[in-house]
Amino acid sequence: ADPLKVVVPAFSVKTIRQSTPVSGATNKIMVTLTASYKLAHGSMGSTVTISGLTGAQTPDNIALSVTTGGGRLGTTGAWTQGDGTLVLTAAAPGLAAGAACVVSFSLTNGGSSQASPAVSVAATITDGSRAVGSIAKVAMAKAGTALYGVAKGADPLTVAVPAFTTRAIGQSTPV
Questions:
Q1: 21 in the Ramachandran plot: left (φ > 0), alpha (ψ -120 to 50) or beta?
Q2: Measured in whole angstroms, how far is the alpha carbon of residue 66 from the centre of its chain?
Q3: CB atoms within 10 A of CB 119
Q4: pLDDT exceeds 80 at position 39
Q5: H/E stretch holding 124
Q6: Per-residue pLDDT averaged across 94-110, rounded?
Q7: How far apart, in whole angstroms, are the C-alpha atoms of residue 118 and residue 108?
Q8: What pTM does this model have?
Q9: What is the mean pLDDT of residues 134-147?
Q10: ∠131-133-6 over CA atoms, to 5°?
């Protein structure tokens, strides 16, 4: 409320990780977000768009089940498989500025190996009834750590087809 005080809308925290890199497996994606502005709910609620989650086998779903801290970003999101986009809409009481929100949802990994795609996040900011601004699309921070022995396996939609790397058999005598 201070005169001429300006705060650039941004996500100070925007991390993403996954539960498994196994091909064809149900994969829990976990996102943590902290915005510098309140993301209000209402007839025209603020939205958060996570994009770039390509390679998942989960078909389009306008009501993909999501879990968000305190339900602040709703209990469902609009998932589009083709471009790997999930749109979440703020629910009561909305997400306060500076408050961390953990969002999780499940996707089915693809059937072939792939490196983690570039994943981004953006938001539209409303006061509940009209648009007041936006948070520009920015890359999300990935864990970059191994998971189940797969390099960068904790990064979203890194997929590895399980296989033996060494296959040999022998015997001690033919007698």
A1: alpha
A2: 10
A3: 22
A4: yes
A5: strand 120-126
A6: 95
A7: 18
A8: 0.91
A9: 97
A10: 135
Q: Which residue has the tokens 């999101």?
A: 77
Lowest mean pLDDT among 17-31, 84-98, 160-174: 160-174
**SS3 of 69, please?**
helix
Rounded distance between C-alpha atoms, residue 158 and residue 175, angstroms: 48
pLDDT in the model for residue 29: 98
CA-to-CA distance for 77 and 105, rounded, in angstroms? Answer: 9
Tokens of 53: 């989650």
**Any idea what the Cα angle at residue 75 is, between residues 74 and 78, rounded to 5°?**
85
User: Is the backbone of residue 154 left (phi > 0), alpha (psi -120 to 50) or beta?
Assistant: alpha
Residue with tokens 């960068």: 152
The yes-or-no verdict on residue 164 having pLDDT over 90 is: no
pLDDT tens digits along 103-117: 999 999 999 999 999
From edge to edge, which strands make up the β-sheet containing 47-51?
131-139, 120-126, 47-51, 85-89, 76-80, 61-68, 100-108, 26-35, 11-18, 141-142
* Sign for the pseudo-dihedral over CA of 139, 142, 144, 148: negative
